[in-house]
Amino acid sequence: MLLAAVFGLVSLLVASLMILGILKIPSLRAIYLTNKLPGPRCWPIVGYLITYYSVFSKDPGGLITLVGRQLEEYGGFFSSWTFGSPSCITCDPDVIKAVLNNAKYTKKGNPYYLMKPWLGEGLLTSEGEKWKRRRKILTPSFHNKFGELNVGIMNRHAQVLVTEILERSGTPENIWPILKRYGLKVILETSMGIAQDDEDEEYRRFIALTGSTTKAIMSRAVNPSLNRDFVYKRTQSGKKFYEGVKFLHNFTEKVIRKRRADFERAALSSTREEKDADGEDERRNRNIPFLDRLLALGMEDHEIREEVDTFTLGGHDTTSAAFLFILFELGHHPDIQEKVYEEQMRILGDAKRPVEAADLPKMVYLTAVIKEALRLYPPAPLFTRFLEKDVLLPSGRVLPANTNMTISIYHMQRNPKNFREPTAFVPERFLHTPSEWNATDRHPFAYIPFSAGPRNCIGQKFAMVEIKATISTIIRNIEIRNKTCPALRDILEADKFTEFMECSVCNVSLCNSGDQMRALQALRFTVLAIYLSINEGN
Ligand code: HEM
Question: Which domains does the chain have, with CATH numbers?
Answer without folding.
Answer: 130-380+422-537 (1.10.630.10)
